[in-house]
Amino acid sequence: MVWLILAVLFIILAACGKPISKLFYRENYREDVMISGRRKVFLGVTIASSFIALFLIMATSYVFIDQDKVGHLKRIYGANMPAGRVIAVDGEKGPQAEILPPGFHFRLFINVLYEVEEKDIVSVSNDHYRILTAFDGRTLPEGQYLADEWPDGMTESFLNAEYFMSPVAEGGEPRGQKGPQLSVLKPGQYRLNRYLFDVSDEVQATEIEAGSVGVIKSNVGTVYTDKAIVPKSIIESYLEASRLEISLRRTALEQELKTLESLPPVIDTVATLATPEAAPESGDQASDVVPEVGVTAIAAVAPSAPIFRTQEVIQKDLDSLRELTEDEAYSRALTNLSNPLVPKGNIGVWQEVLLPGRYYLNKLAYHVTMVDTRVQTWTYEGGYTRRYFDLTVNPDGSITQKEREDDVLQPDGAADSAIVHKVEGWDVWLDSRILVQVTPDNAPFVVASVGNLEEVENRIITPMYRSVSRNILGNRKNRVLDVIYDRQTQEAQVEAGIKPEGLKSGLIIRDVRFGDPYVPPELLIPGKRQQLAMQLQTTFDQEKVAQETRIQAEKKKAEAEQQAILMKAEIEKQAAERQKERDRLLGEGEQLRLEAVAKGQKAQEDVLGPKLTFELSVIREMLAAAKEHPELVKVPHILVTGEGGGLSGAAAILGESTLTRALTPSK
């Protein structure tokens, strides 16, 4: 403004150049000099003042905007804006709808009429968006808290404040609406009028991963008033659930009827009771009831009194079984919807889902629930104390048992702890897992009726699975050890029982599998001890057979090793037997010989006398010995003669020898 005043002053000074020139040259100058001097002064003052005035005017008539800035104008002089307006469109005082792009701009007295302010360009990074709030525009209708979405292809136009604030018709309301905008700024750079738009911080874009869908709950749009929507896939799920339930019920009734028909007819002893009131009092026996002749019945035990079901009643139940119609399935499914499903663009849960991809959805308008459409594995494990009885076989064959405990913790990520079942009065903990899947078509129904998958797990699947599992495993027909030895059958029964309930919630139960059941160890000890005893008995029997076999083998081995000795002994035995026979024969021969000799000696003694006979016998023996052992005989070098009688002659012949010593009489 100061520069403008100075420019005006210099313009006035230029206009007053002639009077000013007269101040420099008075009448005392020559006329020609005076005229020439005044002309020079006039021209100098006029030109200088005009140049300075022009410079001052130019200095207030241009502006330069940096490359990364946006020029904003705020008019100082002008008419007042209409009441309620924040942005001026027709040159009124205040913030202007017009903005200046980067670069040099010339406009007469722009720096005088306007306050020029530079603001940063708005940048939005990848995977993010920004929410806009307009300070001016058309007032939102009652009940609407977000402006209408900008038409496709008109985003750039609505980001222009002049277009945004321009009236739809002459003298009408602005095109844009005041307040938070439904349309958002996607990644990029924008030159916005910051007097009109407030820009939020960056917001993460909605990213839907592969294998998932997004279910949208919209807070904006029109109100849906037509017929309530139930997805066709849900109606088909209810019909399938009805078929499964009918099949299970029919199987149970046919089994009951088959059991009843297999019983022998009982006449005058079986009563037909249709209601508990007709049943006998507590403690009475069924045989005390007055029977209906010719009727066969079976009793279902109840806590208070037995209730008898006849074949006619069971057959009536079978005949009454029927599947749901589509209208009935639609009505039942509709009762489970906490929030109505609506077409896209309406307020509520949209029946259309967002497929995998990236979406720039205004978080003020849309709430996206991610639903994983892949098969989910929900486990039920841990949360109990497991007891063990360890059996040890002692060297003497006795069995020792020792108790120990182990806390089984619930693992992270498990849906819940293991399910405890009451079977025959015993608590049986059962680890298990369920495979569950939500199809994309069913995802909106699941979200509208329950919520996200975690809520489905906690509010539907877990309670339902516990109930069905306990009802089946806790049945009176089941035994505790069936959980171990008949697991496959019970898995199939639980799966068949839970599938219809899952279908009613929009879920597909793919599989049910039991883990390691915890049966009280007291029930397992008898079987273990019996098994050990049988194994020990078998082991002992096998060891006995092995020892006997080993003995026989060792015996055979020893016989093989002593075969030479045995053969020698056998040969010696045979030789001894033959020697014995020979000696016997020799003895008998010797006996005969001696008997004959004795007879001869007896005859000789009778002739020679006893003494000579004895001497002759001795000499004969000595000669025989000398014959067998010649070394006993020594030939003398000297001839000695002796007496004619006795043994001296023989001794003289034999000389000094052992034999002669024997013949020499002792003194």
How would you explain this protein's 3D organization?
The protein has 667 residues and is α+β, with helices and mostly antiparallel strands. It folds into five domains: 2-60; 63-204, no CATH class; 232-336, no CATH class; 373-519, Tetrahydropterin Synthase, Chain A; 609-667, no CATH class. The chain is built from 18 helices and 25 strands. α7 packs antiparallel against α8, α7 crosses α13 and α15 runs antiparallel to α16 (610-628). The chain is elongated, with a radius of gyration of 66 Å. The model is unreliable at 267-307 (pLDDT under 50).
Write the layout of secondary structure elements.
Layout: H1 2-15, H2 17-22, H3 31-59, E1 62-65, E2 69-75, E3 94-100, E4 103-106, H4 110-113, E5 114-120, E6 122-124, E7 128-134, H5 155-159, H6 161-165, E8 179-185, E9 188-190, E10 197-199, E11 203-204, E12 206-208, E13 212-218, H7 232-262, E14 297-300, E15 307-310, H8 311-320, H9 326-335, E16 341-342, E17 348-354, E18 357-359, E19 366-372, E20 376-380, E21 384-393, E22 399-408, E23 419-423, E24 426-437, H10 443-449, H11 453-473, H12 482-485, H13 487-504, E25 508-518, H14 521-561, H15 563-608, H16 610-628, H17 648-654, H18 658-663
Parallel strand pairs: 16-17
Antiparallel strand pairs: 1-4, 2-3, 2-5, 6-9, 7-8, 7-10, 7-11, 12-18, 13-17, 13-19, 14-15, 20-24, 21-22, 23-24, 24-25
Helix pairs in contact: 1-3, 7-8, 7-9, 7-13, 11-13, 15-16
